[in-house]
């Protein structure tokens, strides 16, 4: 592996991620929520995780085009626990960030569980 790839991987947190949140925020075919609402949620998530910075290492965020749960969005999923969340407005994301990403406790009020 070349140095450029190693540097990029280190900057992205490869090998150091404690929790990773994917947020369906600005899909090419918006079905789960209004695009402006998704953008607002994504901008909030970026800002909020940056505020934690070194105080909460190992947190990674990724904007997804679509997470295929096309209702009550924005939708998010947190790994490694594979917990899915609905209605991810900035207020809900605040709880997910503080309680789940940092604190390790699942936010049951907004958890999606498949029927079955």
Question: Can you describe this structure in just a few lines?
Answer:
With 116 residues, the chain is of the alpha+beta class. The protein has helices at residues 3-12, 35-52, 90-102; strands at 19-24, 59-64, 75-79, 83-85, 111-112.
Low-confidence stretches: none
Largest sheet: 5 strands, mixed
Number of strands: 5
Which structural class is indicated by helix and strand composition?
alpha+beta
- List the helices and strands in order: HEHEEEHE
Strand content: 15-25%
Shape: globular
Please state the CA-atom Rg, rounded to the nearest Å.
14 Å
Mean pLDDT: 91
Strands ordered across the widest β-sheet: 2-1-3-4-5
- Proportion of residues in helical segments: 25-40%
Attribute tags:
116 residues; alpha+beta
Description:
The protein is of the alpha+beta class and about 120 residues long. About 35% of the residues lie in helices and about 20% in strands. It has helices spanning about 5-10, 35-50, 90-100; strands spanning about 20-25, 60-65, 75-80, 85, 110. It has a five-stranded mixed β-sheet, with helices on one face. The longest helix has 18 residues, at about 35-50. The model has no long low-confidence stretch (mean pLDDT about 90).
